[in-house]
Amino acid sequence: MNSSLETRINAQQQKQWLWIIVSALIVVVFAGYQFYTQSIPYLAEKIAAAIPKSIYQAIDENSLTTLDDSELKSTKLSEAKQQELQLLFDKLVKDKADSEREFKLKFRNWNDQANAMALANGTVVITDAMVNLTTDQQELSAVLLHEIGHVEHNHVMESLVSSSIVYVSLSFLLGDISAVSNIALQGTVVGIHNSYSRQAELEADKYALTKLNALYGSDQAIKSVLTKLEKEHNSEFSWLSTHPSFEERIDKIDK
Ligand SMILES: [Zn+2]
């Protein structure tokens, strides 16, 4: 065979191999993406539902302790204000007596940031700045109901399970098993901070809207709270930053 023909055949073979590799990569990336976006949420929902109540409670308490040891400080709200909020919260969860979760309200100061969050077993933490930002019971209810919605839809545990699946898959793929030991801690923090999917946020908003309408005949409070937060929004750790865009939420509420 003459050498120029041989070079041409080699070049052609290389090209074919390149295509095979590129196609295989596309398949792997696509399968990974499908697994990540479809299978993980499905698996997470099933696994989270099967986790016993005692584990929910342990994770709930552990999350609060971790936050108290790092970012959260004691509340500066007056006893009277705390009592008033507690009464409102009790009213909002009155119909949840048969729920698997235990709804509790906790007051904390978080770097003067207006924030609220739900933990795995139904503990809802609201910050002083968030309480002070709201002007009436309807706005407070909007914030609390959004968080209660996260608990009702089991978003906290599902997000924790999802991030654990991602960590385990990655550590198997990358061969670093030490990552597995950090799952609980990292998962907790990720779960609380911002791994709620956009869909989860919109579900929590929808829950709040329905309840607000039933209670007050209007759901405008959620919009007014979001508008105030948007005006004051100056930190990456506010209630808005861990949620979908302000415009997107207002847009969905208006529909
Ligand atoms: Zn949320």
From TrEMBL:
Coiled-coil segments on the chain, per record: none
Pfam families documented for this protein: Peptidase_M48 (PF01435)
Record keywords: Hydrolase, Membrane, Metal-binding, Metalloprotease, Protease, Transmembrane, Transmembrane helix, Zinc
InterPro entries cross-referenced by the UniProt entry: Mito/Outer_Membr_Metalloprot, Peptidase_M48
Cofactors, names only: Zn(2+)
EC identifiers of the protein: 3.4.-.-
Example GO biological process: proteolysis involved in protein catabolic process
One cellular component (GO) term of this entry: membrane
UniProt similarity note: Belongs to the peptidase M48 family.
Protein name according to UniProt: Beta-barrel assembly-enhancing protease
Organism: Pseudoalteromonas holothuriae
